[in-house]
Structure formats: C-alpha cells, structure tokens
Amino acid sequence: MTPINKILIVGAGFSGAVIARELADAGYAVTVIDSRDHVAGNCHTYRDDKTDIMVHKYGPHIFHTDNERVWQYITRFGEMMPYINRVKAVSGGQVYSLPINLHTINQFFGKTFTPSAAQSFIEEQADTSIDQPKTFEEQALRFVGKDLYQAFFKDYTIKQWGTEPSNLPASILKRLPVRFSYDDNYFNHKYQGMPKFGYSQIIVNILEHPIITLHLNSSFIKSMQTDYDHVIWSGPLDAYFDHSLGRLGYRTLDFKPFYGTGDMQGNAVINYCDNSEAFTRVTEHKHFSPWESHKKSICYTEYSRNCNAEDIPYYPIRLVDDKALLERYVDLAHKSNGVTFVGRLGTYRYLDMDVTIKEALETADALAEAFVSQQIPKVFYQYVI
Ligand SMILES: Cc1cc2nc3c(=O)[nH]c(=O)nc-3n(C[C@H](O)[C@H](O)[C@H](O)COP(=O)(O)OP(=O)(O)OC[C@H]3O[C@@H](n4cnc5c(N)ncnc54)[C@H](O)[C@@H]3O)c2cc1C
C-alpha cells in the first residue's frame, strides 16, 4: 500500500473532529469538510441573538458518560459545568417526573408507597404472561403494565417514531429505566455535565491544530476522492453511494422556536405524552446554562416526522426493511477502497456523544496503526448491523 499522506474527513461533528485531532496529533495532515456553515454537526450550539441564550440548535444535548478516557478528552477541550438532566412529562393534564420513579408511581396511582411496596405493586401491574418481550409494547407491558404504558409511552412513541409501539423493537425502551426511589436523574452515568461555552466551542478547540484544515459550506463531491489517500466518512452511509440502493429510513425533527420572558416552563425539557398535542417535547434552552442569567427566554417545540431527501436525518429507524437495506450497503461498502465509515450516520446507529467520542478515539488509534504499518485501513471499525 502507498504511504498515507493526505486524509480527507467528511463531517465536522464529534466523529470527524476527534478523528482529525488524533490523526493530526500522530503527525498526519488532515482536511475536514462540512456541508453546513458551522462545526459540531447535530450537537451544534449557538448564542441566540435576541436573548443571548446558548441554544442547542438540533435538539437538547446533555453530556453523560462512565468512560474515563472520554471524560478526560472532553474536559481537555472545554470546561464542563455540573448539570443533572431532570425531565418532566405531561400526561392526562398532570405533570410527572421521568424516568418513572417512586414519585411518578405514587402520584399516578394516588399512593404513598415505600420503594418495596411500589416494586410489588408494579410487579402486579406487569403482564407476566410476556416471557421474552420482542416489541416495544411488550417490553413496556412486561415491565410497567398497561396503565403506565398508556400514560407515558404509547402516544409519545407513536408521535416520536410514527408507528405503533408493537412495530418497534424492545431495545428502544431499555434506554428508559423504572426506579423505585425518588431519584429523578435521567441518567445513571458517573459523569454528567454541560459545556460552559457550548459544544461548538469544544469542537472548534478540538480542530484547532496546525495541520488540520477546515472548510465549512463544503459538500463532498466524488472527484475530491482522487486528491486524498484516504477518506473518513461521517455522513450518511447511503449518501456516499448516491442512494443507489435506496434510502435508509430516518426520523427527522422540526423545531418551532417561541420567545418570552422570565422562566417560561420551569425546566429544560418537558415531554408531552398524549396525542392531544402533535409535538413531543418543549425545550427551554436557558435551563441548560443555570450559571447564566437571562431576562428573556427562548423555547423550541419539537415535532418528529419521517425524513425526506431534503431533510436532516436524526434518528435511524432500523426496522426490518432498513436493516435489510443496511446489509446491502454494508456489502457495497466492503467492496469500496480508500474509505472508512464512522459515526452515527456513517454506521447508521443511534450513538450518544460519549459513545461517538469513544468510537472515534478507537478508530483513530486503529487508523494510525494501519497507516504506520502500511496495511489497508478497514471500511468499518465497528459492528454495524
Ligand atoms: C435529537 C437528538 C438529541 C440528542 N441528545 C443527545 C444527548 O442528550 N446526549 C448525547 O450524548 N447524545 C445525544 N444525541 C446524539 C448526538 O447528536 C450524536 O452522538 C452526535 O451528533 C454524533 O456525532 P457525529 O459526528 O457522528 O454525527 P453528526 O453530528 O451528525 O455529524 C456529521 C456531520 O457530517 C456532515 N456531512 C454529512 N454529509 C456530508 C457531505 N456529503 N459533505 C460534507 N459534510 C457532510 C453533516 O453536516 C454533519 O455536520 C442526540 C441526538 C439527537 C438526534
């Protein structure tokens, strides 16, 4: 294999930026392009000019991890402020706390259960005839029973995924545990925080390196490939192949901003669980920076729908048809030369930021090793299907 000298990274999100930095630190000159006019991909944050509030442009992003290497990495490039994500949910005209915890259970059923009494009660609610839950609906019925499922999951899931929960895999629900204590911290990880100056500033800092060149407003075109020894692709997998086999399914989000003064909803994120509202949640961005003080406020109402060709892809759907198509794209990818697919779009998986960074660090290690030993770099460094 010819020595690798020129590397192109498509995408300046966490995947592209971390790999660029690691390869640059290892001595490789890297060019990073992004079709958008900003860095940080879907984690992009900006200061709203009417309120001066830091806004999460593509939806609320809370950093959380158990991984020491990842925590060291992110705090090397940006100051993380203490932040605990506490989510509220509106259902049947009342406000509850999520994930379902002892307070939610007691409020919903009008009880004063102790933890063990609540656990026994929920076990009675659970549908134990479901031995091995396969679908989202079965998983919910098996673990929380019909009443909590209908109040908190059913309509919300239909709004979020555009399909009945009986069509979705059980694995989706595993992200939302039930707690038999009053702990309403949404995440269980050891580290949780919010970047003091936003995610985009962290990415700017990561990319600040003498041998990294960044071009924004620059979309990949096939002819670029000949100018580089290797391409690292964090855009959509099917887009690399011009969607030649069809489009992988995604959900996209529409955000409708509205303004006010003071504290408009009292919390960063409130979910709307009933189908009486078409939106899934409302985010009040000032609550992500509790160390700042702002008189005005900006909120985003969030709507979910199927992603069309011109939309921004958010959540990979990964239902049976998508997985079959994914397999065909993975086959095609394995026949390609000079490219490595990374990140949430390149590997068509939902990835939290910490997992994205972890995988990017590991991929960069593996690529650097392949370049040094003049081995052909792999097309994927993660298990994708
Ligand atoms: C609504 C939502 C909320 C989330 N909340 C959280 C959270 O609270 N906590 C958490 O840890 N994670 C969260 N995530 C996950 C987080 O967004 C991802 O982990 C992260 O964005 C993945 O980074 P990436 O670099 O792989 O992809 P991206 O951020 O999507 O970056 C890919 C980049 O590639 C660029 N690109 C694509 N195609 C081309 C092309 N042809 N030419 C040039 N550039 C191109 C895109 O413009 C984009 O900037 C959330 C995700 C969503 C959708």
Automatic annotation (TrEMBL):
One of its GO terms (molecular function) is UDP-galactopyranose mutase activity. SUPFAM superfamilies: FAD-linked reductases, C-terminal domain (SSF54373), Nucleotide-binding domain (SSF51971). Residues 151-350 form the UDP-galactopyranose mutase C-terminal domain. One of its GO terms (cellular component) is cytosol. Coiled coil: none annotated. InterPro entries: UDP-GALP_mutase (IPR004379), UDP-GalPyranose_mutase_C (IPR015899). Keywords: FAD, Flavoprotein, Isomerase. Its cofactor is FAD. It comes from the Bacteria. Pfam families: GLF (PF03275), NAD_binding_8 (PF13450). Belongs to the UDP-galactopyranose/dTDP-fucopyranose mutase family. PANTHER family: UDP-GALACTOPYRANOSE MUTASE. This is UDP-galactopyranose mutase. It comes from Psychrobacter fozii.
